[in-house]
Amino acid sequence: MAMTPRSVGLGMAILATFATWTVLFLPGLTAPNTPSDIVRPLTPKERLGRVLYIKNGCIACHSQYVRPTDWDYSGLRVSQRGDYIYDRPHLLGSERTGPDLSQEGGQHTDDWQIAHFINPRYPRPASIMPRFSFLSPNEMDALVAYVQSLGGKMADQRMARQRHWHKLLVAAYHRGADYNASYLRSLVPPQWSTMPNPYPATQVAVAQGRFVYEQMCINCHGPLGDGNGPAAEWLDPKPFNFTLLKRHRWSGGLIYYQVMNGITGSAMPYFKEDLESAKIWDVANYVAVHFIGKNIDSGNDLNGIPVSRESAPPAEHEPYPGAKPHPVAPSPYPPPQPPLPPHPP
Ligand code: HEC
Ligand code: HEC
């Protein structure tokens, strides 16, 4: 057959029809159109939040679709067709200037979300997301409700966990600063809350810790570490005042554990997705030197125990649901440690 413009045009038309049919229509006609195990309809307030999400162009920077190849925290679950059954028009998105939001619900408390919408630089000092402080209180409430619903029943479970701990933390916080400090400490497994910081507080370590603090912590905990960053106005319980620890028992391991896992129920996020072990130990040293009053360059933990980098337990030793047990090197610290208790569900 001769390659005339006509035959080429015809060939192209056939190919395009075939591709459209197999990619667009065939899956639509054959795949089962049933709700997935996690999907639920939105409440009226969440629906209003969704309208605001569309109006404010959130989709320009956020997707709500996790492909099998994605593996950041939103990759908690690969999206399924049935997740979108109530989603008209769908908000899959394709642009990821910000993180995917399909499992955003319950990742943070409501107060974190509000502080973040008022000014994303409050909880995330280096963020490039625009601020949405012009929303009315009702609109803000609805937008937060919508964002907290993302992830369907999985989000509902995470929210239930946040609310459970939120109540306890608020009660502890309002009983007074010293009670709160002891309460927070009691939530940390003892082998962490007594573990010295294995990274000596050298000039370099503390300078690196300062960088992390300024990138991640400063607008909540404040430049003086007293919990008076600009985000504090929006948060309850307020960010922790590190200078309190001058009169409490504490250790590098206590700070490490709380930074790694966050404090569920408060705005204090978990950083195990953002920071490697070394950076968490460094920021713990920075907090110790600048806010609690530990000496720089001591080569020792505050408790006088000589420490070395080689003995630092890496973050992946922290168990998570479904994790295979990780071989743990023998601890250099006395006394012998009991095995870690299971991580709270
Ligand atoms: C210009 C791009 C941009 C726009 C527009 C935008 N965001 Fe973001 N968003 C980001 C970036 C970047 C981040 C990551 C840094 C941060 O947390 O602020 C982010 C983070 C977030 C997070 C936190 C995710 C986490 O880490 O848990 C939420 C929730 C969020 N955005 C919701 C929204 C909503 C709702 C809107 C619309 C009202 C919106 N964003 C508009 C860029 C954007
Ligand atoms: C969005 C605000 C926010 C950010 C960002 C934040 N924190 Fe917090 N942090 C809190 C809040 C709120 C609490 C107190 C919770 C309570 O009292 O129940 C807290 C508590 C803590 C505690 C517990 C102190 C103790 O002795 O029990 C440590 C340690 C801590 N934060 C370290 C950090 C570090 C280091 C960073 C940065 C890597 C950081 N936080 C970032 C809000 C924040």
What does this structure look like?
The chain has 345 residues and is mostly helical. The chain has 2 domains: 44-159, Cytochrome Bc1 Complex, Chain D, domain 2 (Orthogonal Bundle), CATH 1.10.760; 177-317, Orthogonal Bundle (Cytochrome Bc1 Complex, Chain D, domain 2). It is built from 11 helices and no strands. Helix 3 (110-118) packs across helix 4, helix 8 packs across helix 11 and helix 10 (252-261) packs across helix 11 (277-292). Bound molecules: heme C (2 copies).
In short:
The chain is an all-alpha fold and 345 residues long.
Structural class: mainly alpha
How many alpha or pi helices?
Answer: 11
Task: Encode the helix/strand succession as letters.
Answer: HHHHHHHHHHH
Residue share in β-strands = under 5%
Contiguous uncertain segments of 5+ residues:
315-320
Number of domains: 2
Number of strands: 0
CATH homologous superfamily heading of the largest domain: Cytochrome c-like domain
Biggest sheet: strands, sense, closure? Answer: none
The third-level CATH topology of the largest domain is Cytochrome Bc1 Complex, Chain D, domain 2
Q: Helical residue percent?
A: 40-55%
Rg from C-alpha positions? 25 Å
Bound heterogens, unique: heme C
CATH architecture of the largest domain: Orthogonal Bundle
User: What global shape is seen?
Assistant: elongated
Q: Could you tell me how far the N terminus lies from the C terminus, measured between alpha carbons in angstroms?
A: 68 Å
CATH class of the largest domain: Mainly Alpha
Q: Round the mean pLDDT to the nearest integer and report it.
A: 87
